[in-house]
Specification:
The chain is α+β, with helices and mostly antiparallel strands. The chain contains nine helices and 22 strands. Strand 7, helix 5 (180-196) and strand 8 (200-205) form a beta-alpha-beta unit. Helix 2 crosses helix 3, helix 2 (106-116) runs parallel beside helix 4 (150-162) and helix 3 (121-134) crosses helix 4 (150-162). Bound molecules: adenosine-5'-triphosphate. The site of adenosine-5'-triphosphate has 12 residues, from strand 2 and helix 1.
C-alpha cells in the first residue's frame, strides 16, 4: 500500500500525463515486458488487457514502484519517477485483495496514509468524510472490515486509495473476487467515480467485457508486447492483427486460400465455400508483422464475427459466394441473442449469434443456410507462419 499525500502536487498541463518510454523488464532469463512505449492521457481511463502472463501486472507494478524497470523511463507529468520509492510517487494502487487492516475500523483504515504523512487531524477527518461520501459508504465508518461484504470492502479499498488524492490511480484486477452482478455494479461505480474526479485511471484486467464497459482506451497486450491501442469500438471493429481479432469478442477463423484477385476483390476458397472480399488487406497474425496486400495462392485465415452471420432454414438463400450450407449442432438462448454452433462440411465449425427478439430457435440437426455481407470478412496471416513473415524471409 502506498501512502503518499499529494494534495500539494502541482498538476502539470499537457495531454500525456504518464509516459512509459522504452521500458523493458527481465526476470532472470524471462523477459516479462519487451521494450515498450505507452502514453496515458491526463484524466483518461486506460485499461491494460491481455491473457494471463502477458505482463500487464508487471507494467502496473513498475508504474507503482514495486518493480524497477530493467531499462527505460517512466515519466509522470514530465518527471522521471523510476528512482522514487512507491510512497514518494503521486500514485496509489487498489489491489485484488483489499488489504484492509482487520483490527482497524473503516475510518481508521482510510485515514492510515494521511496519518503517516502527518496531515493535521481536522483535515484527515474531513477528507475521510468526503471520500466515504464519494463511495457512498458514509454509514460504515465505525465498522470493522469483517463486518462488510466483499463489494463494500472493495469500495473502502478504493476510498483508501483516493483519500490520498493520487494523480494516477492504479487498479490491479480489483473486481476479480466479486460475483458477476456485484462486478457489474462496481464497474458502474468506478465509471461514476472516474467521471467525478480528474484522476488518471490505469486498470489491469484479463476480462474483455470489463475493459470494453469502462475504458476510454484499451491496451491489448500479449507476451510482453502491446498488440493494439484504441477505443473499445476501434479494437473490436478493426483488430490490428489475428491475436486481437481472436482475443476481443467471439470470432470465426476459417482457413482459406486466395483463389484469385480481380478488380480489387479477392476470392478466397475455403474447404466448403467461397468468400468474396472487397478489401485486399492481409493483416498480420501478431503485432510482429504488418499489413500487406493479398496475393493469389496465399494461405490465410478469414475471420467473421458471429453476429455478422445470418442463419435461415436451408433452401431459402441462393448458394452464392459468402454463403454456406450447414447443420445446427447446438444452440443456446443467451437472453438478447440466440447462439448457434453450426457445422459446415466435415470440419468447419461456425458460431453465429442472431437477435433473440422475434426469432424462433432452429432446432439441433436442422439444416441451415448461412450468409454474410462481403465487408464482414477480414483476412489475417496464419499463426506461426504468417504470409508477412514468409514474405520477409523469401519474396
Ligand atoms: P496475470 O493476469 O496472470 O496476473 P499478467 O499479465 O499480469 O498475468 P505478469 O504477472 O505481469 O502477467 O507476469 C508476466 C511474466 O513475468 C510471467 O511470465 C510471469 O511468470 C513473470 N513474472 C512476474 N513476476 C515475476 C517475478 N517476480 N519473478 C519472476 N518472473 C515473474
Amino acid at each position: 500500500m502506498t501512502t503518499t499525500v499529494t494534495a500539494e502536487t502541482t498538476p502539470a498541463t499537457g495531454l500525456d500525463h504518464l509516459e512509459i518510454q522504452g521500458v523493458k523488464k527481465v526476470f532472470g532469463d524471462n523477459t516479462a515486458i519487451e521494450r515498450l512505449d505507452l502514453s496515458v492521457h491526463r484524466g483518461e481511463f486506460l485499461s491494460l488487457l491481455g491473457p494471463s502472463g502477458c505482463g500487464k501486472t508487471t507494467l502496473l507494478r513498475m508504474i507503482a514502484g514495486f518493480e524497477t524497470p530493467t531499462d527505460g523511463a517512466i515519466l509522470l507529468s514530465g518527471k522521471d519517477i523510476v528512482s522514487l520509492p512507491p510512497h514518494r510517487r503521486p500514485v496509489n494502487t487498489v489491489f485484488q485483495s483489499y488489504l484492509l487492516f482487520p483490527h482497524m475500523n473503516i475510518a481508521d483504515n482510510i485515514a492510515y496514509g494521511l496519518k503517516q504523512a502527518k496531515v493535521p487531524k481536522p483535515e484527515i477527518a474531513q477528507r475521510v468524510r468526503e471520500v466515504l461520501a464519494l463511495v457512498q459508504m458514509e454509514d460504515f465508518a465505525g465498522r470493522k472490515p469483517e463486518q462488510l461484504s466483499g463489494g463494500q470492502q472493495q469500495r473502502i479499498a478504493l476510498a483508501r486509495a483516493l483519500v490520498n488524492r493520487p494523480q494516477v490511480l492504479l487498479l490491479d484486477e480489483p473486481m476479480s473476487a466479486l460475483d458477476r452482478k456485484l462486478r457489474e455494479e462496481m464497474q458502474l461505480e468506478l465509471k461514476r467515480l472516474h467521471t467525478k474526479l480528474d484522476t488518471t485511471f490505469v486498470f489491469v484486467t484479463h476480462d474483455q467485457d470489463e475493459a470494453l464497459a469502462m475504458s476510454d482506451r484499451i491496451v491489448v497486450m500479449y507476451d510482453g508486447v502491446i498488440q493494439q491501442i484504441g477505443t473499445g469500438e476501434d479494437i473490436y471493429a478493426n483488430p490490428a492483427n489475428g491475436f486481437v481479432a481472436g482475443f476481443i469478442g467471439k470470432q470465426n477463423f476459417i482457413p482459406a486460400e486466395v483463389a484469385s484477385i480481380d478488380h480489387g476483390t479477392a476470392r478466397l476458397r475455403t474447404a466448403n465455400t467461397v468468400l468474396e472480399v472487397p478489401s485486399l488487406d492481409l493483416r498480420p497474425a501478431t503485432a510482429a508483422g504488418r499489413t500487406e496486400t493479398l496475393r493469389a495462392g496465399e494461405r490465410v485465415r478469414a475471420a467473421i464475427r458471429p453476429e455478422r452471420i445470418r442463419v435461415a432454414p436451408a433452401g431459402q438463400e441462393p448458394a452464392t459466394a459468402n454463403t454456406a450450407r450447414g447443420t445446427v449442432m447446438s444452440y443456446s438462448f443467451l437472453g438478447d441473442v440466440i447462439q448457434y454452433m453450426i457445422t459446415v462440411g466435415d470440419n468447419d465449425e461456425i458460431l453465429a449469434r442472431v437477435p433473440a427478439a422475434g426469432s424462433t430457435p432452429l432446432s439441433a440437426d436442422a439444416e441451415v443456410d448461412l450468409s454474410w455481407d462481403a465487408d464482414a470478412v477480414a483476412v489475417y496471416g496464419c499463426e506461426g507462419g504468417s504470409s508477412s513473415s514468409d514474405r520477409e524471409g523469401g519474396a
